[in-house]
Design goal:
Layout: E1 2-5, H1 8-26, E2 33-38, H2 45-55, E3 70-74, E4 85-90, H3 97-102, H4 105-110, E5 114-119, E6 133-139, E7 145-149
Parallel strand pairs: 2-5, 2-6, 4-5
Antiparallel strand pairs: 1-7, 3-4, 6-7
Amino acid sequence: MKRILKNLKETQKFACDLMAKIEKEYGNKAGALLVCLFGDLGAGKTALVKVCAEYFGIKEHVTSPTFVILKNYNLPPKNTLTFKRMVHIDAYRLENAQELLNLGWDEILKEKSNIIFLEWPEKVSEILPSTSVKIYLNHLDETQREIEIL
């Protein structure tokens, strides 16, 4: 599926629809759900994660974890919510996959109630499960983004 998102409102609706679909389709599988976000700097990866965090009811200010690499957000209780924790990882500064493994990657993936958003997954591709959702973002102009989900 490929779409052009013209503004923040369209991005919010897209993210809400996507998260609802993900919860329905992937919520009962073994292990965490990994959402890989591909795209150049400024493509909208972190912006998409922020909107997804809003969907999950996270009130904290969500920023890119570029310098800390990994941030955890506990999700507020919600009757329909499959996930209990959102993990946001930015692999941009990682030199290799071992660095992500050193941060407890295997344990994060085993926890069924985690939804993980991974920016720059190509940096650690050799340790990613084949079941991950892949989202490609392309910056078209100041407000428009092309988004493709595989």
